[in-house]
């Protein structure tokens, strides 16, 4: 996210725009935590994880008046929101309020950045690939820890909320026996089938199982 902010700020300045940074998402926006951000302010941000501007899941819906007021005060002509599903929802709320507030009749853009990779209409979000690396690395270590002991089944929980992307692709990459996700409701019969599969597997030379959810 920091690399994205850095790129956005420097490209904007190069194109002759005045760039402002908002701290703590839309909560900071309506509280007026807005300051101009210069070329040097984003130096060295590329390799830094997390978000130096700060993120909040607060949606703008209840504070549209204050947000419109801040846009007027700072004379904001365009908005770039870097974030996940909440960012998508926020932009949608601002878009739907355009009839009531002329301040929102500006170009508004969302840059998807979430490990869950669950922003509608996008293929890949910033952070999803890094989190997959972490999942696969962890699965490899867990498999290695079981290489000495026999008859072990590991159940690994991933992040991602209601979106099964991380679990599915992580399971594919790590070679999991099965993956449980919200998109595919499973019942006791599916569990039974998987347990039977694992029982059969334990009779072979590979006596370990890996389940992701």
UniProtKB/TrEMBL annotation:
Known cofactor(s): Mg(2+)
The coiled-coil regions, if any, are none
Reply yes or no: does the keyword Metal-binding apply.
yes
Query: GO CC terms for this protein?
Result: 6-phosphofructokinase complex; membrane
A GO MF annotation of the entry reads:
6-phosphofructokinase activity
Q: Which reaction does it catalyse?
A: beta-D-fructose 6-phosphate + ATP = beta-D-fructose 1,6-bisphosphate + ADP + H(+)
Which key words tag this protein in UniProt? Answer: Cytoplasm, Glycolysis, Kinase, Magnesium, Metal-binding, Transferase
Protein name per the record: Phosphofructokinase domain-containing protein
Recorded hits in InterPro entries, A to Z, give: ATP_PFK, Phosphofructokinase_dom, PKF_sf
Keyword Oxidoreductase found: no
Q: GO biological process annotations for this chain's record?
A: canonical glycolysis; fructose 1,6-bisphosphate metabolic process; fructose 6-phosphate metabolic process
Which lineage do the record's taxonomy fields give for this organism? Answer: Eukaryota, Metazoa, Chordata, Craniata, Vertebrata
Q: Where is the Phosphofructokinase domain?
A: 1-205
**Pathway entry:** Carbohydrate degradation; glycolysis; D-glyceraldehyde 3-phosphate and glycerone phosphate from D-glucose: step 3/4
Pfam families per UniProt: PFK (PF00365)
